Amino acid sequence: MMLTRVAVVLTAIACFADAQVPASPRFEVASAKAANGARLSMGGGPGTADPERINYENANLKQLLMKAYGVAIDQIAGPAWIDSGKYTITAKIAPGTSQEKFQLMLQNLLTERFQLTLRHEKKDFTVYELTVAKGGPKLTPAAPPEPNDAGRTELQPGSPIDRTKDKEGCPVAHPGVRSGSGGFGPGITCSRFTKYSLADFAGALGPFVGMQEGSTSFGIGVHVIDKTGIQGEFDFKLKYHLMPRFPGQTVPPGEASDPGGVEGPSLFTALEQQLGLKLEKKKMSLDLIVVDKADRVPTEN
Fold it and tell me: Fewest CB atoms within 10 Å of the CB: 9, 75, 172, 201?
């Protein structure tokens, strides 16, 4: 009788423990299938203009893992084909889903459909820490939206409204509508960021830092990490002269010039003078995701 009671108690405890473990989040409706198109498109998801749906077309597995784990391209290793095989992923997302929960849902989808086996390691990377410069930050809190922009949360990159410039050559501001736009080319470049957190800004800086420093040919795989400790969203613009360089090509520190005679502050100098921020180059141990096994053809349903 005593053994029976103990068994009942242990079973009840096990059931209670199982009930306390939250179910791993998953998409209610999702599709994954092979693709063979040419144009990469990865739209939708939390924080975008279409937060309740994703539509990823012609993305390779490495690009999908970057989205799922929030890492850079050089933080994923595995078989060579994960750079070349193309896939289409579509899914519906419940209203109000956070970015963190969305990433877990995408991780689970990729694990199930590709039969993924992966592991996490640590690797030392060169990083650039975004910190507050001497004298403090020069940032303006994000303004509320104007009446004609009410209900709009984000500008679609490349849309005609996103390409409109003011008399200084800066993208026109749309208060309250999240956007980050600009470019580089002859002369001074002006980039404008509206309703941007410094964490988001750090993520956007990577390719430009890489081109400025000549650390990679196209600024790919450059890690910029927000270490300012500043929370909130801000509106700001940044005017600088970006002279893209190839690895090994040198330019005097803090300056940029080209054969056309155009001169202006480098990206690093402009950050400090105009925003009260600075970039510091360091070594840091970051997560490396290693794909040990994956099916080339995903399970569609």
Answer: 9
Token pair in block for residue 108: 């689970």
φ, ψ (nearest 5 deg) of residue 9? -65, -45
Q: Is the dihedral of CA 224, 226, 232, 234 positive or negative?
A: negative
DSSP-derived letter for residue 259 is: T
Q: What angle do CA 287, 88, 81 make, to 5 degrees?
A: 55
**Six token digits for residue 288:** 């490396």
What count of other Cβ atoms lies within 10 Å of the Cβ of residue 148?
7
pLDDT by 10s per residue, the chain, length 301: 544 554 444 454 445 444 444 468 999 899 999 999 889 999 999 878 789 999 999 999 999 999 999 998 889 999 999 999 999 999 999 999 999 999 999 999 999 999 999 999 999 998 999 999 999 999 999 998 776 654 455 554 444 445 678 787 788 877 888 888 776 555 678 888 989 999 999 988 888 887 777 665 444 568 999 999 999 999 999 998 877 665 555 555 444 444 445 567 888 999 999 999 999 999 999 999 999 999 999 997 7
DSSP strand pairing (277-293 vs 117-132): antiparallel
Q: Phi and psi (nearest 5°) for 48?
A: -115, 180
Q: What whole-number distance in Å separates Cα of residue 256 and Cα of residue 242?
A: 7
Helix axes 99-114, 61-69, angle to 10 degrees: 150
Judge if pTM exceeds 0.85: no
Nearest alpha carbon to residue 58 among 74, 76, 80, 42: 42
